[in-house]
Amino acid sequence: MAGLSLSDLNLDYNGIYVLFLTIVAFLIPVVLVFPPVPPQTSDALLQTHSKAGVRRSKSNLRDQSSPAHLPRDGRPPTVQSLVIYPVKSCRGIELERSRVLPAGLEFDRVFMFAQLKSPFPVAVDATDAEKDVHRWEFVTQRQFPRLATVKVDLWLPDEVKQRKQSLEPTREAFLILRFPWRDLGWRGVLQVLGAKLTRGRAAQPEKEILLPVDFPSRQEIEGKGYTYEDVRIWKETMNALNMEKELPNELRLYLGVSNKLGLFRVDPAQLREVYRCAPNKTEAGCQPVTGFQDAYPLHIINLPSLQDFSSQVPKDEDLQELDVLRFRPNIILSGAKAYDEETWKQVRFKPGDSGLHNDARFHVSCRTVRCKMPNVDQVDGVRHPVEPDKSLRALRAVDEGAPLNGCLGMQLTPLFEANAAAEDHTSWIGVGMAVEVEKRGKHVYIKQ
Ligand SMILES: *[C@@H]1O[C@H](CO)[C@@H](O)[C@H](O)[C@H]1NC(C)=O
To answer: Does residue 74 form part of some domain?
Structure first.
């Protein structure tokens, strides 16, 4: 039985072609069931958790430039949309309702990226102590606009799913960060193929990072090698938990960060106390605090103000419309007169059409003084060279406390009942709530 060759099998070219077709036809279902890419972490989470937030197709901001948001007689302003940004400077999550805590909306800005900066240059004969001087400094889209394209999903435990699968119930919530990434060579080709097979033709391969939402226990901190370090945010320094061990090096390459990149988790026991324009402890019901927000717990934008401003911003090919999300608001209002919010000092949110049964009260602390970040397109992470920064400075330098800066939107501090217990320092806010202005007055910004 020696020398069996192809010619002995009597296969002509037609035969080989048919054989080839048979193999391919057999492989197609195999590839569909077992795609040539390992399952993503989010595929596993889907079994026990549900993704929080409003689907893009159901977004309450779809018609944000419509005149329907202009004020109408006899109708109070209402909450049009709510947005949280669990990772500072990354993509936000639109919500229908949210819990309000002293430090702002629940899950807002719990993580933040930072880069390790050393003083440069260091003298050759400097002491080791001097050479070791380094400082973690927060990074935002101002330096690394690609942060805007890092998507963030919040996965909350789903009791129904867990019960169906008779799994040990877990109360743990997770964040998944996703950024576009493909490896070099054939591996990258497979990743592109896998993405398209599993998520549709337009899908691009992504890399995922899984993060626990709850603040880690002492054992977890030790076990995972997380460290407490000081990190600078604007002109303040916070002590927070560095979880950089969770970051793949690919993220640094994708963002274009040449320094060491850190990922900080805010420590709920070490929030920053807010003074300046904020109410004092007695007025607010508790000492105003904030986590990784820029300066105050919440930020609110009124759509008619944005529409008025936007109508005066020169548009070009790279800036066709000014999406409200460029301004990174938490609360987006409809139906207040343009810039009326700049005369508000205290507001009460009432149930309205929200389906909620509680009021939520806020101190309107000051105007939001803008940096250049609104120049970054929040969809593709591309920075416009001049607008809207130029128009903000030209048209919106309206606060005598910050005469050289443009302002748009207001900073809010939540108000709670005096003498309430710490666990009662909470309320709910939802889309459809109606806004009643309780106090009006003048705002003068106090610089940091
Ligand atoms: C808080 O502010 C109120 C009103 O401005 C003032 O009457 C009160 O004395 C202040 N309380 C403290 C503790 O500073």
So the answer is: yes
